[in-house]
C-alpha cells in the first residue's frame, strides 16, 4: 500500500477493483465504512461477481474477468475528455510534460521495437527526448504532440464508452456511474483510493493493470495524499515482509535488482552502475571515483543514487570482515542468476517437470493446492530426489505421494496414473510453530512492521522458522569448516552470529542486522541516509534501516512501539509499530501540498501531511517527509515527489526498461478468452511467454470463463483453516458459483454436484446457483462466467477437489504471476 | 442497574461470520460439519451447538438489482421473557442487566420454552437432553468484558454497551440511513414485545430480514397466568390427585381381577 489501512477512513471515494476486501481483508471495511459514515464517501466495487464486498458498496459494476485495462482505459479517456484531471498536480508532479522520442510508436497492439520471434520488445525507443545534460525536454503547456500527455490522450482515444462496455460486458449505465463518481476525485479538495488484490495481478497483463491504476490516480491527483493512493491488499499477514526481504527471484533485499551473470554485472562497480540510474554514461572505474560523483550529485538518479551504500552495507552484514574494499566487498560471493532464465513459480515447476531440479524446500506453501496447473506441478514433484516440507500441518504438498493425492473424482487423460510405488522422492517433514508460538515481526499490507511476542510454546516437536534456518546454517557451516577452496568461501565466510550465548537463535541479533549497525561503535544506524559504502556500516536491508535506536544505552526496536495516539486525527498513529521507510505512513507525501511546498490544495487543509517551514528552515508536518527534509522547495536540486524515480516524476509514461510490455497499458485478452480482441489484432499480450501452447483451451470446446478466489472463512490453500472444525463447518465443501441462467441452460440444480472441465483437468464440486453472477454480453454475444474456491484439497476436516487442477501455466509478461483469474472451461451436471 | 446489550447494525455487517466462530470458541461448542447445500449460510438455523448464526438473503428487483443482506440471529433476551414464564423448573433467570440465562442443571429437557419463544431460539440438544441458547456472554460481561461476538466484529456492526445509549445511537443511525438511500430503515428491539435486550438497526422492514414485524408470544395464557404463579401449590395438588387416582384405579382393577386372569391363560395357551 502507498497509504495505510487506517488511512482508508480519509477517502472520499474508494474504487475496489480485483479485490473482495470485505471477505479477504475484513478490517479494511472498518475504515471504509467510517469514511462513508463520516465523510459521505462512496464505495465502488468492480468485480465479475457480486460478493460480500458488493453487498456493502454504493455502486456495484460487473466486468468480465481479464478486461480491467479496457475498463480503466475508458476511465483515462473520460478524465481527459472531460478535463477532470488535477491540472496543477499533473503538470508539476508527473511526467505529462516530458517529450518522448520520435521513433516511439504504437500501432495495432504493438509498441515500437517488437521482436516477434522472441516475443520481446527492444525498449530503446520508449524514452524521453533529452537535452545535453540528459534531462528530459518538457512542454508544461502539455500541447506538444510528442509530450506524454498528448501521447496518452491519443493512446486512449480508442477506449470510448461503447467499445469498453462491449469488451467488459459492464452495463453502460453502471459504467457511467462509476466514471462519474470516481473521477469526481480529480477535484483538488477530493481524494480517492484504489484498492486491489489478486483479481488485478493474476493476469497475463497483471502489471499493466496496476500501471493503469497509477495513470488514473496521477491524473486525478490522488497519490501521496490521505485517502488516496494505490493500495495493494496483501493476501497474507507478512507477505509484505517476505517481499521486503527479497522473496522474489529477481531481487536482493530492499527491492534492488539481483546481480546476474551478464557482463554488465561482472564486478561490483559494474553492478552498481547497472542499478544506479543516471550513471550509465558517467566516467568512473572504482568505488572511490564513484563516491566523488555521488557527493557532487548527478542528474536523473533520484534517491537510488545511494544504491552503492545499500549494497555495500548488505555485503558487510552478510560477509563481515571477509568483505573489504580491496576484494569488492566480497561481491563475487553473491550467487548470480542466469540472465536468460526465468525463476518464477511456473518456470521452476516446468524445470522440475523436465527433471532439472533435484530438491525442493517448501516452507509455508502448498503448491499441490495453490500452484497453477496443479496436476502438472504435482507430477513434477515426483521427479524430485527430495522434498522438505515445513508447515504447521501435514498438508497436501507434504503428502503428495500418497494414494489419496492421486485419486481424482473425474477421469481426465491429462492426469497420469501414479501410485506411491512409482514415486522415488524422499520427503522430510519439519513441523513448524504457528504464528502465536514464535517471536518476531510481521510487516502488514500498509508496510507497518509490528513486533509480536510469543503467546504459547510450540506444540510437540514443532519449531519456529528461525530455529530451523539458524540450525540449517550452523550445520552447513560445520560441513565447510576448514575448507580452503575458493568456491567454498561464501559459506565459510558467511556471518552467522545469531547465537544467544546458549547455543540458541537470538531473534534480536537478526533484527540488529536488518536495522543496521555501525562497524565503528556498534550502535544502530539511524536511517538509511547514514549508510556508507566504505565498509563502516552493515545493514541487511536498507529499507529497514532506522528501525532501531538507542534507549538508555540499549538497543530498542521501533516495531515494538505500542502508543495508541493519533495526534493528527488522520489515522497515522506514528508511535504504534514502525513503517518502512523511516516510519513514513503515506509515501510520496510531498504531493499533499502544492508545488510551493507551503499551500495546501484548495479546500484540503485538513489532509496536508507536510509543508515547508521557512522559519525553521525545514519541512514539518504530521508524517515523515518523503525526501530530504531540509531542502527548500525552491532549491533547484530539489527532487520531485516521486524520489525513487530518476527524474522524480510520477510516470504516466513508463520509459525504457520499466515495463517489458509497453509504456502504456493496452488491452489484450486473457490467454484463454471467449472472444477476439476488439482493441487491436493481437489477442494475447505480445510480450508474455507461452509455456504450454498445446494446453490452450479454445472457445468451441470450452465456452465458459472460469475464475478462482477465496472466502472469508478459509485462508490461502486452506491448510490452516480446513483443519479447524469451526471454520470447516462454515465452508465445508468445494463449490462452484454459477448464474441462474447458466444453471437453466445446463440443467444444473443448486446444491447438486457438477463437473468442470478444462484441457488440464476436471473437477467435481457442488453447484451454488446464484443471482450474484450474471451472463455478460461480450461483443454482442452472451458469455457465461463461473467462479470457484481455490482453497480445497484432500487433507483436513473439509476436503474437496482442487480448483488449480484447471488453471493454466501462463503468467504476466513482467512478473510471471500465473493467470489464475481468467481461463476457459465447460460445466455439466455430475 | 442499567441494561447492557448489543446493538447490531445490518448496514455495517459484512457477514464474515467472525461472531459465529468467536461464539463457538468462547462457549467451546463443537462444530457440526454438514454438506454444503448451495448456500453460504451453512447452518439453516441456530442449533444446540450453535448459539448464533448469520443469515443470508439474496434478492433481486428491477430497480435496485441484486442485493445480499445479512442478519445476525441469536437470543433476543426479551424483557418479558416467555421462556422464563413457561419453564416448569425455573431454569431461566434474568440478570439485573437484562440477559436471560438458562441453567442447564435445572433443565429437564421438556422444551416448553422452545415452543413458547416468539423467535424460535431455545434449541434442544439431544446429546445432553437439555435446552441451550445464547447467554449474552454473561460470564464475560460480569467480569467487565464485552460479549465474544461483539469483541471480534471488525466493522463495529456489533457493539456492546448501555441499552439507553445504544438506543440513541440506533435511532440516529436509522435516521441517517433513511436520508442516505434506505427510506425504510428502522430500528428493532425498542418496543417489540415490550422491549428486547438486543437492538437492531435495519436497512429495510423487519420481514426482509426474517424477523417478525409484530412478534407475539404463542398462546400460553393458561400457563402464564394460572399454572406458573401457583406452580408450588399445584404440584402437591397434582400429587394428591394422582394418588387418589392410583388408589381408585387399583380398587377397580381388583374388582375385575378374575376376568383379567382368564385372559392371560388364554394368551399363554395360544403362545405355546
Structure description:
The complex is a heterodimer of chains A (830) and B (272). Chain A has 830 residues and is α/β, with parallel strands linked by helices. Among the domains of chain A are: 345-465, Rossmann fold (3-Layer(aba) Sandwich), CATH 3.40.50.740; 693-829, Barwin-like endoglucanases. In chain A, 23% of the residues lie in helices and 15% in strands. Chain A has a six-stranded mixed beta barrel with strand order 24-30-25-27-26-31. In chain A, strands 3-2-1-8-9 form a five-stranded parallel β-sheet, sandwiched between helices. In chain A, strands 12-13-14 form a three-stranded parallel β-sheet, with no helix packed on it. In chain A, helix 4 packs antiparallel against helix 7 and helix 15 packs across helix 17. Chain A is globular and about 75 Å long. Chain B has helices spanning 18-27, 82-86, 112-116, 138-141, 148-152, 163-179, 221-227, 231-255, 257-271, and strands at 4-9, 53-61, 65-73, 92-94, 100-102, 123-125, 130-132, 158-162, 186-188, 199-202. In chain B, the strands form four sheets. In chain B, strands 8-1-10-9 form a four-stranded mixed β-sheet. In chain B, strands 2-3 form a two-stranded antiparallel sheet. Chain B has a two-stranded antiparallel ribbon with strand order 4-5. Chain B has 272 residues and is of the alpha+beta class. Chain B has two domains: 4-222, Alpha-Beta Plaits; 230-271. In chain B, strand 4 (92-94) and strand 5 (100-102) form a beta hairpin. Mean pLDDT of chain B is 89; it is low at 258-272. The longest helix of chain B is centred in the C-terminal third of the chain and has 25 residues, at 231-255. Chain B has nine helices and ten strands. Classes of the chains: A alpha/beta (830), B alpha+beta (272). The interface between A and B is large, with 40 and 38 residues.
Write the layout of secondary structure elements.
The complex is a heterodimer of chains A (830) and B (272).
Chain A: E1 13-17, H1 21-24, H2 26-39, E2 42-46, H3 52-56, E3 59-61, H4 68-81, H5 87-93, E4 106-107, E5 110-111, E6 114-115, E7 120-121, H6 148-155, H7 161-168, H8 172-183, E8 192-196, H9 198-201, H10 206-219, E9 230-232, H11 239-244, E10 251-252, E11 256-257, H12 268-275, H13 287-296, H14 307-319, H15 345-353, E12 359-363, H16 367-370, H17 374-381, E13 386-391, E14 426-431, E15 440-443, E16 448-452, H18 465-480, H19 489-492, H20 507-515, E17 517-518, E18 537-538, E19 548-551, E20 554-557, E21 578-579, E22 610-613, E23 618-621, E24 704-709, H21 725-728, E25 735-739, H22 740-746, E26 753-757, E27 762-770, E28 776-778, E29 781-783, E30 785-789, E31 823-829
Parallel strand pairs in A: 1-2, 1-8, 2-3, 8-9, 12-13, 13-14, 24-30, 25-27
Antiparallel strand pairs in A: 4-5, 6-7, 10-11, 15-16, 16-21, 17-18, 19-20, 22-23, 24-31, 25-30, 26-27, 26-31, 28-29
Chain B: E1 4-9, H1 18-27, E2 53-61, E3 65-73, H2 82-86, E4 92-94, E5 100-102, H3 112-116, E6 123-125, E7 130-132, H4 138-141, H5 148-152, E8 158-162, H6 163-179, E9 186-188, E10 199-202, H7 221-227, H8 231-255, H9 257-271
Parallel strand pairs in B: 1-10
Antiparallel strand pairs in B: 1-8, 2-3, 4-5, 6-7, 9-10
Amino acid at each position: 500500500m502507498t497509504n495505510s489501512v487506517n488511512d482508508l477512513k480519509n477517502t472520499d471515494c474508494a474504487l475496489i477493483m480485483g479485490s473482495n476486501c470485505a471477505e479477504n481483508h475484513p478490517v479494511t471495511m472498518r475504515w471504509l465504512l467510517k469514511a462513508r459514515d463520516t465523510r459521505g464517501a462512496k464505495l465502488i466495487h468492480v468485480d465479475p461477481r457480486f460478493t460480500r464486498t458488493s453487498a456493502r458498496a454504493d455502486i456495484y459494476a460487473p466486468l468480465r474477468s481479464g478486461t480491467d485495462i479496457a475498463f480503466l482505459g475508458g476511465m483515462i479517456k473520460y478524465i481527459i475528455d472531460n478535463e477532470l484531471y488535477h491540472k496543477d498536480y499533473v503538470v508539476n508532479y508527473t511526467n505529462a510534460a516530458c517529450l518522448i522520442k520520435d521513433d516511439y510508436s504504437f500501432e495495432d497492439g504493438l509498441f515500437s521495437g517488437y521482436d516477434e520471434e522472441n516475443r520481446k520488445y527492444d525498449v530503446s525507443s520508449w524514452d524521453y527526448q533529452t537535452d545535453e545534460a540528459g534531462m528530459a525536454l518538457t512542454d508544461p503547456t502539455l500541447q506538444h504532440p510528442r509530450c506524454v500527455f498528448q501521447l496518452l490522450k491519443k493512446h486512449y482515444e480508442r477506449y470510448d464508452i461503447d467499445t469498453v462496455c462491449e469488451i467488459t460486458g459492464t452495463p453502460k449505465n453502471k459504467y457511467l456511474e462509476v466514471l462519474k463518481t470516481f473521477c469526481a476525485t480529480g477535484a483538488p479538495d477530493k481524494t480517492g483510493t484504489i484498492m486491489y488484490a489478486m483479481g488485478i495481478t493474476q493476469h497475463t497483463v497483471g502489471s499493466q493493470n496496476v500501471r493503469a491504476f497509477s495513470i488514473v490516480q496521477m491524473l486525478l491527483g490522488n497519490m501521496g495524499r490521505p485517502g488516496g493512493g494505490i493500495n495493494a491488499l496483501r493476501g497474507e499477514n507478512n507477505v509484505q515482509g517476505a517481499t521486503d526481504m527479497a522473496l522474489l527471484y529477481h531481487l536482493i533485499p530492499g527491492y534492488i535488482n539481483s546481480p546476474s551473470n551478464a557482463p554488465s554485472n561482472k564486478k561490483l562497480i559494474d553492478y552498481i552502475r547497472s542499478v544506479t540510474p543516471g550513471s550509465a554514461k558517467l566516467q568512473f572505474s572504482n568505488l572511490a571515483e564513484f563516491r566523488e560523483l555521488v557527493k557532487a550529485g548527478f542528474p536523473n538518479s533520484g534517491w537510488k543514487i545511494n544504491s552503492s551504500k545499500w549494497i555495500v552495507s548488505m555485503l558487510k552484514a552478510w560477509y563481515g570482515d571477509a568483505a573489504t574494499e580491496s576484494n569488492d566487498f566480497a561481491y563475487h560471493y553473491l550467487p548470480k542468476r542466469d540472465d536468460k532464465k526465468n525463476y518464477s513459480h511456473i518456470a521452476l515447476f516446468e524445470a522440475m517437470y523436465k527433471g532439472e531440479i533435484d530438491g525442493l524446500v517448501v516452507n509455508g506453501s502448498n503448491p499441490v493446492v495453490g500452484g497453477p496447473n496443479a496436476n502438472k506441478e504435482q507430477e513434477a514433484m515426483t521427479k524430485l530426489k527430495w522434498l522438505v516440507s515445513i508447515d504447521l500441518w501435514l498438508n497436501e504438498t507434504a503428502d503428495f505421494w500418497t494414494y489419496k493425492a492421486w485419486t481424482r473424482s473425474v477421469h481426465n487423460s491429462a492426469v497420469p496414473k501414479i501410485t506411491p510405488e512409482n514415486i522415488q522422492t524422499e520427503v522430510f517433514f519439519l513441523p513448524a510453530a504457528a504464528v502465536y508460538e514464535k517471536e518476531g515481526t510481521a510487516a502488514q499490507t500498509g508496510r507497518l512492521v509490528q513486533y509480536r511476542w510469543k503467546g504459547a510454546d510450540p506444540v510437540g516437536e514443532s519449531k519456529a522458522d528461525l530455529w530451523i534456518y539458524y540450525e540449517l546454517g550452523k550445520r552447513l557451516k560445520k560441513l565447510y569448516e576448514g575448507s580452503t577452496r575458493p568456491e567454498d568461501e561464501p559459506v565459510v565466510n558467511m556471518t552467522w552470529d545469531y547465537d544467544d550465548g546458549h547455543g540458541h537463535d537470538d531473534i534480536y541479533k537478526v533484527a540488529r542486522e536488518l536495522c543496521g549497525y555501525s562497524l565503528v561503535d556498534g550502535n544502530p544506524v539511524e536511517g538509511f541516509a547514514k549508510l556508507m559504502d566504505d565498509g563502516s556500516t552493515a545493514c541487511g536491508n536498507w529499507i529497514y534501516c532506522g528501525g532501531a535506536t538507542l534507549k538508555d544505552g540499549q538497543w530498542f526496536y521501533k516495531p515494538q512501539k505500542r502508543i495508541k495516539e493519533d495526534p493528527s486525527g488522520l489515522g497515522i498513529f506514528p508511535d504504534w509499530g514502525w513503517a518502512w521507510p523511516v516510519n513514513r505512513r503515506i509515501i510520496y507525501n510531498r504531493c499533499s501540498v502544492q508545488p510551493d511546498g507551503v499551500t495546501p490544495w484548495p479546500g484540503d487543509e485538513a489532509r496536508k501531511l507536510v509543508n515547508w517551514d521557512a522559519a525553521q528552515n525545514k519541512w514539518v508536518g504530521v508524517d515523515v517527509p518523503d525526501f530530504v527534509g531540509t531542502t527548500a522547495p525552491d532549491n533547484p536540486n530539489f527532487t520531485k515527489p516521486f524520489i525513487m524515480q530518476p527524474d522524480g516524476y510520477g510516470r504516466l509514461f513508463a520509459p525504457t526498461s520499466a515495463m517489458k510490455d509497453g509504456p502504456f497499458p493496452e488491452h489484450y485478452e486473457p490467454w484463454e478468452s471467449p472472444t477476439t480482441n476488439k482493441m487491436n489484432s493481437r489477442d494475447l499480450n505480445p510480450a508474455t511467454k507461452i509455456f504450454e501452447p498445446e494446453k490452450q483451451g479454445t472457445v468451441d470446446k470450452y465456452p465458459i470463463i472460469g475464475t478462482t478466489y477465496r472466502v472469508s472463512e478459509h485462508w490461502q490453500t486452506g491448510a490452516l483453516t480446513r483443519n479447524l472444525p469451526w471454520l470447516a463447518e462454515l465452508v465445508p465443501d468445494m463449490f462452484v458459483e454459477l448464474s441462474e441462467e447458466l444453471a437453466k441452460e445446463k440443467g444444473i440444480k443448486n446444491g447438486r454436484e457438477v463437473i468442470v472441465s478444462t484441457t488440464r483437468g476436471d473437477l467435481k464440486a457442488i453447484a451454488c446457483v446464484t443471482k450474484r453472477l450474471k451472463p455478460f454480453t461480450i461483443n454482442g454475444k452472451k458469455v457465461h462466467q463461473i467462479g470457484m474456491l481455490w482453497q480445497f484439497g484432500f487433507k483436513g476436516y473439509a476436503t474437496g477437489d482442487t480448483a488449480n487442477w484447471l488453471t493454466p501455466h501462463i503468467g504476466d509478461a513482467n512478473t510471471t504471476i500465473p493467470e489464475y483469474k481468467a481461463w476457459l472451461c465447460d460445466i455439466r451436471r455430475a | 442497574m442499567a441494561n447492557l446489550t448489543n446493538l447490531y447494525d445490518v448496514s455495517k455487517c459484512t457477514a464474515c461470520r467472525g461472531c459465529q466462530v468467536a461464539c463457538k470458541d468462547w462457549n467451546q461448542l463443537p462444530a457440526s460439519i454438514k454438506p454444503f447445500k448451495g448456500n453460504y449460510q451453512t447452518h439453516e438455523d441456530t442449533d444446540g451447538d450453535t448459539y448464533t448464526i448469520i443469515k443470508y438473503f439474496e434478492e433481486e428487483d428491477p430497480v435496485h438489482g441484486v442485493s445480499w443482506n445479512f442478519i445476525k440471529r441469536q437470543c433476543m433476551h426479551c424483557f418479558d421473557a416467555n421462556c422464563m414464564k413457561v419453564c416448569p423448573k425455573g431454569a431461566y433467570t434474568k440478570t439485573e442487566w437484562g440477559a436471560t440465562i438458562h441453567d442447564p442443571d435445572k433443565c429437564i429437557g421438556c422444551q416448553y420454552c422452545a415452543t413458547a419463544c416468539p423467535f424460535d431460539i431455545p434449541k434442544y440438544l439431544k446429546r445432553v437432553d437439555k435446552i441451550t441458547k445464547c447467554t449474552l456472554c454473561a460470564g464475560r460481561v460480569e467480569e467487565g468484558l464485552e460479549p465474544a461476538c461483539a469483541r471480534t466484529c471488525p466493522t463495529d456492526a456489533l457493539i456492546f454497551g448501555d441499552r439507553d445509549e445504544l438506543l440513541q445511537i440506533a435511532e440516529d443511525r436509522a435516521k441517517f440511513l433513511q436520508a442516505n438511500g434506505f427510506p425504510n430503515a428502522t430500528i428493532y428491539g425498542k418496543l417489540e414485545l415490550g422491549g428486547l435486550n438486543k437492538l437492531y438497526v435495519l436497512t429495510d422492514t423487519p420481514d426482509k430480514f426474517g424477523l417478525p414485524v409484530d412478534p407475539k408470544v404463542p398462546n400460553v395464557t393458561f400457563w402464564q397466568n394460572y399454572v406458573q404463579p401457583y406452580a408450588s401449590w399445584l404440584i402437591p395438588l397434582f400429587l394428591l390427585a394422582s394418588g387418589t387416582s392410583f388408589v381408585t384405579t387399583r380398587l377397580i382393577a381388583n374388582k375385575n381381577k378374575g376376568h383379567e386372569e382368564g385372559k392371560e391363560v388364554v394368551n399363554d395357551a395360544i403362545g405355546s
